[in-house]
């Protein structure tokens, strides 16, 4: 559906769909681990190179984040239709809809900055000053009320994240402009707050709690050198796989909410001999 013809319809799902999004994403990842990991590593290499540019680099990464998100969406779309994720998919956002995607990135930059600036009311500006002056993390966390300020900033950033969640997919797949994509994404996420909350909690558990607990247990059970080796060969690969699954889940959740009547694409027809 082209967004110019009216509002983009979306479905309302029960809480359990949040589990399904990650489950289906893991199935897709399991069928193409190497291509997805190559795609992810290429993206991280680009991030590393761009981040070396002082001041402009980190800002550019955030502005162009929705553009690269389209690359992961394109890779998932292609895989669901019988193809495989390819490096070229990563740059798909630069070839079309670029000028609708960049405003979404600018929205992320402005929204994040406002969320951090709002913490001045909580800790008197300690967190904001620490980030602005690039102080070491341990020094920033030593400040009074900084942890409360971080929680407050996270809460302020929730609507920003929800608005940006489906926005790149809505631009590419539904023909929305940036403003309509952000507004539609926010409304769909709020309507689906139950599965979104389950999904978010699962991301926190599998992406932060579980690996942190694993690292802690390994450190307690083994000498320092052995622990580092075990972490390097278990937790680090796990994190790459988790991040890849999370990237795929952006497509899976979008498809489930905005194309619920279509379902996953059917597998390709098997080839038959014409003889």
Brief account:
73% of the residues lie in helices and 0% in strands. It is mainly α.
What can you see in these coordinates?
The chain is mainly α. It contains 15 helices and no strands. It has one domain (14-258). The chain is globular and about 50 Å long.
Strand content: under 5%
Summed up, the helix count is 15
Structural class: mainly alpha
Percentage of residues assigned to helices: over 70%
Mean residue pLDDT = 88
Q: Count of DSSP E strands? A: 0
Domain module count: 1
As a whole number of angstroms, the C-alpha radius of gyration is 20 Å
What ranges have pLDDT less than 50 throughout 5 or more consecutive residues? 266-275
SSE succession: HHHHHHHHHHHHHHH
N- and C-termini, Cα separation? 41 Å
Can you summarize the main beta sheet? none
Task: Give the SSE map.
Layout: H1 17-30, H2 33-51, H3 56-63, H4 65-80, H5 92-95, H6 98-117, H7 120-123, H8 126-132, H9 137-141, H10 146-165, H11 167-174, H12 178-191, H13 193-221, H14 224-233, H15 235-258
